[in-house]
Amino acid sequence: MDLLNWQSRLQAFADERAWLPYLNPKNLVMAMSVEAAELVECYQWCPPETALALTQEEPGRSQVADEMADVLMYLLHLARETGIDLEAACEAKLAKNALKYPATGRARPPEGPHP
């Protein structure tokens, strides 16, 4: 995924609709949290087995895809507005997480409750 291309496309889309004045960090974070809550709603009260199967068939697959896209598009707008390079931020965060959570040699998490 070319993040810069998507940011340009989203900016043009918003500009064509005169939305740019509203796309400030505060509004974007609030909108993204609403969309994240709508993604949560897709899975709310699902047992784990149902949650895993939700995206295997329609309409669940489309509903989850739409909410994921909304969250990502707001995040891309936010990155553009704040001047944060998401690719660099992800690389840096992954490096921090590698130090914080060293590899255990296990390919899958153990069964049962997780921290």
TrEMBL record:
The keyword Hydrolase applies. The keyword Hydrolase applies. CDD domains: NTP-PPase_RS21-C6_like. One of its GO terms (molecular function) is nucleoside triphosphate diphosphatase activity. Keywords: Hydrolase. One of its GO terms (biological process) is nucleoside triphosphate catabolic process. This is NTP pyrophosphatase (Non-canonical NTP hydrolase). The lineage of its organism: Bacteria, Pseudomonadati, Pseudomonadota, Betaproteobacteria, Burkholderiales.
